[in-house]
Amino acid sequence: MEQNILIIGGNGLVGKTISRILKSRNPHINVFIGGRKGGKTDKDLRIDVTDPSSFKVIVEKKINLIILSVNDKEDHILRFAITHRIDYLDITKPTPALVKAYAIAGKTDVNSRIVFSSGWMGGIVPGLVNALSDSGDINEVKLFVYYSVKDLAGESSAHFMAENVAVPFVYYQNDRPVSIRHFLDTEAFNFSFGIGKRNAYNFDVPDLYILNKVERISDVSVKMTYNSKFITWLLGAFQSLRIYNILSLKERKMIFGSSGNGDQSVFEIVVEDPSGQKKLSLQSLKGQAELTALSAVLHTEELLRNPHENKVYFSHQLHDPLSLMAQLHAYDSININVTQ
Fold it and tell me: What PANTHER family does this protein's entry cite (predicted)?
């Protein structure tokens, strides 16, 4: 059967990276690129997520799977995929948008695979959490993120932080949501891969919601540090003084909109279960865009390879946890260490 895959937002940083990795690993697949301006070839389609009338080309090209790597605030593409029974993989949504889209899909009669993959680095963290626990009875998960301003970064992450840095979010303690704000409540953590001891601060990613509400883990927290200790301290100082509340959206975008030429991306998962505490450390030498794109490709390959039933998924639910970890570890620019 011919496989036609459409990457909407395929001209962006992550979208281009998904296309490159997907084509290199699966040369037999037809990959189409969707963007607001279209393109020069018959594989470049003009699709504007704010204009549903532009979606008819998706049916005309007999698309089997849509990969969404651009912000679709009104969930037009999600609704179109459900209506036309097209498989759907979304890597774009911050927590509030994910909760909304998940509710839309849950109230609809679904006759395709609808996959939400908006967790940290393409939704792989919950799968790696499950790979760490032998019993499956996990008491607590802590995610620590190292973010380098030297790394190549797309606009979406900067826009999310600019829009939400002054808005409280929740982490989970004793199975209850606790309201917090970004860049407060410092916790010292010794990062791997030569980074060393850093202060890490509150940070909102969809894994907080997914690990608590879907995986039923009672205590979940996420904290971030930047490669620059001064920048990390400054962001925390701005929050403590409520400076973000008086800045315009444009000014906040200037703060979070920096992008370099490339650097490593690192995150560490600390899991506590009845057998004790384990830590998984993951380093992407080519940065966060490469890792996010690879994760999307692994989810895509899993959908193509195995007959998962038609329903709504979070991406980690497609995989055997140990197999997912092994596939990530096998990629040439990714290093994974597990310690007891």
Answer: CARBOXYNORSPERMIDINE SYNTHASE
